[in-house]
Every structure is written in structure tokens, then in C-alpha cells.
User: What shape does this take?
Amino acid sequence: MSVTMAQIDRRVDSAQELESVTHTMKGMAAVSVRHFERAADAMGIYESTLDRGLQVVARHLDADDVAWERHSRFPPRRSAVIVFGSNQGLCGPVNRQVARHAAEVVAACPTSVFEVVAVGFRLSSELELTGVPPDVVLELPNSVDGISPRAAELLVRIDRWRRADPNPAVHLVFPSFRGRHAGFEPADRPLLPFDTARLRELVGQPWPGRSLPTYTVGRTELLATLVRQSVFAGLTRTFAQAMASVAASRLVAMDNAQRDVEERLAELHRERHRLRQAAVTEELLDVISGFEAMRE
Assistant: This one.
């Protein structure tokens, strides 16, 4: 079926509009990657500061201290899994890969999993396809400002779990950000119970300053506060890493889409040039034929 010049022009206009959209979305994704990457780095610094506080408290704990033993006395009996993905599509295979990794984590849990929380509307459908339907679906924030409120919401949910079970195991499954060009890889890490081996490791580390700080509040209260802040910081950094990974995946997807659109535009321009040349050739042949007829 022959294509007219008007049809080619309409296709070129549509492709140019699509190219403009992909270019805009690519720029927005690049900006988002940078913002979320900075947020993750900032929370990493905050976690290092909390480690220094835990190091100070841990120096005054011994094996018989209630504040030390309260975090490791009872082994977990049940587990919860929090999975991070995306709200929307156009971000490559991030949701599918994270959902598959979450299914492996759930299958490998040594205790029964009583709740699966999906952070991201698009992720929930992928989890259902892998046989791990989420019990709760939360929205992934769209900006850095929305991370802390959503992390606080999860922290309230974790407190509710701990009231029902004093020592649940909470696992995080998320796309770990590896860089703007390296993309992501599915990862998991335990959030609770708090690793007391981490306290022993901190005690053995040298203090970065010349003098050790002290504190005036009770060490049990201070340790509980630092542990809670450490959990909150871990949640917040996981949010930032997941959002950076989603933005980086969308950046790669938009880059590929823009490349495809540019190739399609080049094909349409060649087709339009061919049709234009054919029309010019046809007109020239008509002129020559008319001239030959008049001369005869």
C-alpha cells in the first residue's frame, strides 16, 4: 500500500512530539537520580553518626547488662518482608526483578512470614505474579521530602508488629542503587532484630577523636533511642536507594526510547525524501513528455 506525502508528514510530526516527550522525561529522571542519590549519601552519613553514638554506649555495656541482652535474648518467631519498587511503569525490569528476589527471600525465611508490605503500586502486581501477594500496598514517594513521612509510617507499622510479637524479624528487599550508568541490582538486608554483633564490632573500633564523649541519660534509654533512630535511618536510606534505582532505570528506558524514536525519524525522513524525489521525477517526466508531444 502506497504512502502519501501527507501521511509521512503526519508520522514525522508524531515522532517529533514523542521525541520531545522522551527528552523531557529523560531530563526529569536524570535530575531525580541526582536528588535521591544525595539523599541516600546523606542518610549514610547520619547512620555513621549513629554508629558513633552506639559505640559510646556499647563501651559501657557488658554481657549481663539488660540493655545489651534485650535485643538478642529472644530469637524471632515470625517474619515480615518490606519490598520496594515503583508506582508507575516506564522504568525497565526493576519491579519484575525485585519481585522475583522477594519471592526467594520469602521462601528462604526460617520463620513463617506473617505480612508482606509492597511499597509501590506497580510492584504489587509483580509480586502477585511471583506467588507472593502483598498484604499491604503503600505508595512510593515522588520526592525527597516525602521519604521521611513514609518511613515514619512504616516505623509505626513495625511498632505495631512488635506489640504483637516482641521480637519479629523484618527484612527489606529493594533495588540497590549502583550508579547512574551501572543501574541497580536486587538486594535484601535484615532490619530487625537489631544485630548485637554490630555493637561488639563498634566497641573494637578506634574512636576518631582525642577524647571520648559522655552522656547524662540512662544508657538503657539512650540505647533504645539510638537503635530506633538506626532503624529509621535504615528505612530512609532504603527508600532513597530504591527511588534512585527507579529513576536510573527510567533514565535508561527513556534513553533507549529516544534512540528508537531518532532511528524512526531518520527512516521517515528518508521515506519522505524518496517520495519527494519520486514526485519531482514524475513531474519532470510529464514536462518532458509534453514537450516531446508538442515538438512532434
The domain at 5-26+253-295 is CATH 1.10.287.80 (Helix Hairpins). The beta strands are 78-84, 112-119, 136-138, 169-179, 183-192. The helical segments are 5-58, 66-69, 94-108, 121-129, 147-164, 196-203, 219-295.
